Amino acid sequence: MKNLNKQRMFWQSRRGMLELDLLLVPFVQEVFDDLTTDDQVLYQDLLDHEDQDIYAILMGSSHSEYEKYSAITSKILGHSKAQHLNTVLNTKK
User: Fold this and answer.
1) Any residues with CB less than 8 A from the CB of 47 and at least 6 apart, and which?
2) Which domains, from first to last, does the chain contain?
3) Alpha helical stretches, state H, 1-93
């Protein structure tokens, strides 16, 4: 069984690409604890890939081996979109 410790996931979410850091770090800080165990394992599995592959998966690569990540990528991207929308709405106040 993989170690699904949140602190460990935080450090593994810090990548070499700024684009990934902006998506993954807030996600793991704010959402990871609320994920099901299956989704936590899937997230950990996603992090085992190289940065370029994670980026391709998040940007909707149609490669068949990446289809299993569709549930977690939609949660990551949904969180990022909500976070951005919240920032925009707070700026307009």
Assistant:
1) 9, 12, 13, 24, 54
2) 6-91 (1.10.150.250)
3) 6-13, 18-30, 37-47, 51-58, 70-91
* pLDDT tens digits in sequence order for the chain, 93 residues long: 455 788 999 999 999 899 999 999 999 999 999 999 999 999 999 999 999 999 999 998 767 788 899 999 999 999 999 887 777 667 766
How far CA 75 is from CA of 18, 72, 82, 83, 90, in Å, comes to 19, 5, 10, 12, 22
What type of residue sits at position 65? E
Grouping H, G, I as helix, E, B as strand and the rest as coil, residue 29 is helix
Angle 67-71-76 (CA atoms, 0-180°, nearest 5)?
115
Burial of 80 (0-12, 13-18, 19+ CB in 10 A): middle
